[in-house]
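Supplementary Text 2. Reproducibility record for the structural model of the 315-residue chain.

All settings were left at their defaults, and a single model was retained for analysis rather than an ensemble. We include the record here because the model underlies the residue-level annotations in Supplementary Table 4.
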Amino acid sequence: MNFLQLEYFLTILKFNSISKAASELYITQSALSQQLIHLEKELDTKLFYRKGNSLILTEAGERFRDSAQNMLYEYRTMQTMMAEHKDNGSLSGTGHLSLAVTKTKSFITLTYLLGGFKQKYPNIEVSVTEVESGGVEELLENGSVDLGFCYSESNSAITHTNIYQEQILLAVPSQIHIPYQREPNGHSFPMLKFEDICSLPFIVGKTGYLRKYTQNLFEKHNCQPNIVLETSNPGLVHFLVAANVGCAFVGYISAYVSPMYIESPLYCQLETPDFQQVYIGYNKQRHLTRPMKCFMDYAKQAMERPPFNISETIL
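Retained model, structure tokens:
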């Protein structure tokens, strides 16, 4: 048995398919099948059984999965520590950093943070994995990535570093006229009362915390939102609002991505401002590498001092 076989096994498990795993690993299906046969022969047990077109773990395979993840995790950690030792802790920052982010937030990570980070640390290679809501914690827990953007501290296997508290705003089409106060009590955004927005048409994402936030907010007030559109493309929300499709709750930073060629939405806050905590998480057992430290420090500083003032550009 070798570490490459462990990676092959876990990739097959990820896709529940030899063909999809082979494509991901850039090897032939026959070569991957042979590696699985050799591994099962060495372990003297079947790891998968076939159900339709999918491969499902056997009971022995489920037990082996945990061991394989731990062994591969320790191996990758050792590789990273040795590489850092060879690099002798260069302050210039070298190495590789793997990030996980939900698809609903990937456009913020890719456009806002990575450009400046790469400029400051040009020798750190960065890879990004985009997953559905809830998938970040899974990748962190099994050691597949170094860092991930999280929006709760629910997973005890992950160390959470709070980098930012992002205010939740309501994006309102300019064609919808609702009563609001401009900059009351020193707030940067016009303030709205829930009763003034409860009957408005809403756009929500198919997944993500803003969908949950919208649902929870309306449940709190014992009513249902008038959802006119669900979208799996969060970057499209601002354009849909500007096109007068409906209103939508958005994060403060994403509001900076103003729609082009069409009139910008009016960004407002509710009477009681709401915020979403943003964390960067990593597995508690993972060695905290220099690229990981560099990125966390950079992200925290960048988020604390956004290089723009939305209220000045919109109001």
